[in-house]
């Protein structure tokens, strides 16, 4: 099969990562970049591809079989819609949108036009996550009762030199916690209700710098997430999972914990805890590492996207699915703001079932 032609819209940090994976693939080639920055000119020259200041001109000029969208969050839907209108399959970085109405509109446009949209919740392509889904799904820890997740990082002051990161929508709930909520949905079940608190006292920005939430799932599981971008710890997926060691220091400590009636699983170390024989806190519990093949998460995502473009696979997370993750994340932000518990099925602003095709 011939290589597919991929264009990248947005040449920032994540755009560069996608271009790096494309360059390493024998299934696709980079044909063009759209980005108005001067740095993008250097990138395009180095890679020997065309550069466009306006993504629309790229879409109308280049013979792109697929597009990867890595623009600021507020433009994801606009660029995604332009791709759908032209019949071009698209991978859109998370979050799918800033608001649920826009996410639903994009999902409906994808369904109506039959143009596939893959959303870049890349952890779903991580072999650790596949392993965890198998362990939990096959009942190796019994009935899942509690999940505890830590996402505690220290973002340097320079990170906030970009103005939108200090404003509403640019805080760690929508930027970081959305990954954890998607992981919970993928591994544990749909979110039924949300309670949350947040604080901006440490950095005193418009957006939160710390938050915590409790999610009750449809199956009765209780999931807790602790979040901060001003906490000096190794306890976050980015540092512990080693998915991108070019961007994050690697410190292999457990950060995600899933507890069931027969045992427990921690990630990303993949330790499976269980009793020999009778269960009980008076008995010794043993842990062993669950085997897994080492794989490149971003390369896995790109291969899957190519399969989607070629019609060989359905998106692992499509626009409708990503809209449900966004709905739960926005509900966390609202619950933290109001102090109220949000019922995801009763509150029409966040009703997850509305996003099912």
From TrEMBL:
Concerning InterPro entries, the annotation shows: Gfo/Idh/MocA-like_OxRdtase_N (IPR000683), Gfo/Idh/MocA_Oxidoreductases (IPR051450), GFO_IDH_MocA-like_dom (IPR055170), NAD(P)-bd_dom_sf (IPR036291)
One GO MF term on file is: nucleotide binding
All residue ranges annotated as the GFO/IDH/MocA-like oxidoreductase domain in the record:
129-234
Q: Which positions make up the signal peptide?
A: none
Q: Where does the record place the Gfo/Idh/MocA-like oxidoreductase N-terminal domain? A: 4-121
User: What is this protein's record name?
Assistant: Predicted dehydrogenase
